[in-house]
Amino acid sequence: MLVNSLHWLGQIVGDVPSVLLNHLRIDSRLVSQGDVFIALPGSKTDGNLYIQQALESGAALVLTSTGTFADKRVLVLPRLAELLPELAASFYGKPQQHLLLVGVTGTNGKSSVTSFIAQLAEQLGVKSAVVGTLGYGAWQHLTPLNNTTPHFIDLQRIFAEFVASGVRLVAMEVSSHALVQQRVAGLHFAAAVFTNLSRDHLDYHGSMQAYAEAKAQLFVPEQSTLAVINVSDDTGYAYAKSCQVPVYPYGLTEDCAQFTHALSYQDSAPKQATTHCQVSYDGQSFALQLGLLGEFNVQNALAAISCLHALGQPLPLLIQAAASLKPVAGRMEQYTLKTGVTIVVDYAHTPDALKQTLLALRAHCANHLRCVFGCGGDRDKGKRPLMGQIAEQLADHVILTSDNPRTEDPLSILQDIAAGMHPQGNYTLEPDRRLAIKLALIEAQSGDIILVAGKGHETEQIIGTTAHVYDERAYVQQLVAEMES
Ligand SMILES: CC(=O)N[C@H]1[C@@H](OP(=O)(O)OP(=O)(O)OC[C@H]2O[C@@H](n3ccc(=O)[nH]c3=O)[C@H](O)[C@@H]2O)O[C@H](CO)[C@@H](O)[C@@H]1O[C@H](C)C(=O)N[C@@H](C)C(=O)N[C@H](CCC(=O)O)C(=O)O
Ligand SMILES: Nc1ncnc2c1ncn2[C@@H]1O[C@H](COP(=O)(O)OP(=O)(O)OP(=O)(O)O)[C@@H](O)[C@H]1O
Ligand SMILES: N[C@H](CCC[C@H](N)C(=O)O)C(=O)O
Ligand SMILES: [Mg+2]
User: Fold this and answer.
1) Given a cut of 70, is residue 232 above it in pLDDT?
2) 379 assigned ligand-binding residue
3) Is 367 assigned to a binding site?
4) In the 8-state DSSP scheme, what is residue 39?
5) Cα 361 to chain center, whole Å?
6) How far is the CA of 133 from the centre of ligand 4 (A)?
7) What is the mean pLDDT of residues 342-371?
């Protein structure tokens, strides 16, 4: 555990009490003895309402930007928001100075690309860690997080832990929410990666333009040194054309034609549980073989390869190492039964992700392609009918079921999805997710593939405000074992 004196604060605000401090916390519920509680205003409530609670939990110091307090442990810094990024970095000993930081943004593929970067870097002898949806730490041993991109106060603590354990490279997901909320303020990325932009989170951003502008904030000189951009994506192409930092483009050969030093691919082809393609860079050609399903994973692998190449690693070694890449937990994970039926657990929860996964699986499917999915409650409602339409077009049979309904009526979410499908279409509504998967399995025949989409690695299902234990990967394995016994 880190122990810090107050000298960093003294340099900024003058005399401060001489005590040893433990951690910086922005959530009073996480404060323990010797921590510093930083009271911040928010969208739902205000940290200032919890100052007393933080003190009672043992906070040695409270920082706020407003109010008057008799308690000497509460310091009012009117410029707190402005000072905070530097304060947090100093408190934890400026860990970023010892790390190569890579930020990955985009609607889909962030967790995959960050994991691939860490996996490739490890193979090349660079100790690496990730921060994102599945947690933080070594890519195969992650500690869970509340947010895909934590606040910089928490990130600085995590980075200090990484430095202490000898990590040199950190690949982190940077969500659009985090960019808008300045959760990465004060961080500088040696490389920033853009995967793609498609519909999601319009409940938060309001429009695709605002969503694109949020992501673009990562690709400016104050935030990143260089940009690795998917130019086969329309938004990526536009970013690459106007970017103020050096661009390392990747994508399909035809889309890369007008860019120099692009890492391009063509002839992506599925072969059993692998995907092969030809990759070119500056007149050199390589055969890329991946033990991963889907053309989108070729793009994810190229993003990771291009990023590490831009940071100085040799291309032939990276291409070779890519053959050993492992998928992220809950992404295109296959379970094949003796009956010849395959179930694939995937985290597709956007229209484009659902489309890409169904297209990828169709190429491997000898018989019927079945799809079991739902949409999260209290989130972007506009994507529901779009996902219904895509599933109906690309799968042979669909079972609509609950994802995380949260505080919405589960059945009405399914009806919103069905609104994008033909009323007499080949689909069934079954809100109970366990039952829906079982139904799909009972109906399936040899050569069928069942895509179970949306929950991937998650280990809970949120119904109302209660998180019920539900691990889809474990459930599918259990079902498979039962069917085989
Ligand atoms: C809508 C939203 O994004 N909210 C984020 C935001 O919360 P906020 O500023 O509104 O906080 P608030 O709840 O009003 O509370 C204000 C302050 O009081 C503090 N507080 C609150 C209650 C209490 O008892 N004690 C206390 O100290 C809070 O810690 C906070 O500092 O800032 C918090 C700290 O950074 C985030 O944890 C929180 O994420 C919430 C949990 C969330 O669900 N966010 C989602 C939408 C999100 O950010 N998702 C993206 C991934 C999207 C993707 O996959 O593409 C992510 O990066 O996770
Ligand atoms: N490059 C891609 N293009 C389109 N879809 C993708 C791509 N990569 C992954 N997917 C799909 O998106 C799902 C989520 O992938 P991943 O977890 O890597 O993305 P993410 O951006 O981290 O998602 P989140 O926003 O939830 O953190 C996968 O399960 C797959 O269905
Ligand atoms: N990072 C995604 C997770 C969604 C996963 C899905 N299971 C859901 O609950 O909608 C989001 O914040 O939208
Ligand atoms: Mg993610």
Assistant:
1) yes
2) yes
3) no
4) -
5) 22
6) 4
7) 97
